[in-house]
Amino acid sequence: MVPKSKLGEAVHYTLRQWPKLIGYLDDGQLSIDNNCAERAIKPFVIGRKNWQFSFNTSGAESSAILYSLIETAKANGLTPFDYVMHCLNELAQP
Questions:
Q1: Do 8 and 2 form a contact (C-beta atoms < 8 A)?
Q2: Which end of the chain, N or C, is surrounded by fewer C-beta atoms within 10 Å?
Q3: 1 with 14, same domain?
Q4: Phi, psi of 22 (to 5 degrees)
């Protein structure tokens, strides 16, 4: 195997990253993959595609804020509609 080949580079990279690669063996709470994180950001990826159709910056910012509120509610086990309504009610207070 030639070190400058793609395979050689891949093996060298893997060996350099080995402590990070097997880190999950030291801590049973760590996951071997990042599927949970990938699923969590999927709505933002979809939102990004939708924001391309915003007519102005304000519309895109409003969409981003709403997505953030909804995803925050989901991440904390709350009902998104109830959480958004609570936030709007709090914002409406003098």
A1: yes
A2: C
A3: yes
A4: -100, 10
Does 38 share its domain with 3?
no
Secondary structure (DSSP) of 47-87? HHHHHTT-SSHHHHHHHHHHHHHHHHHHHTT--HHHHHHHH
Which residues 6+ apart lie within 8 Å of 1 measured at CB? 7, 8, 11
Q: How far is CA 81 from the centre of its chain?
A: 21
- Written as six digits, the tokens of 4 are 């400058």
- Tell me the residue range of the domain where 55 lies: 33-94
What digits encode the pLDDT tens for the residues 9-25? 999 999 999 988 888 78
User: Which letter does DSSP use for residue 30 in this model?
Assistant: S
Q: 3: which 2 tokens?
A: 């070190």
pTM value is 0.47
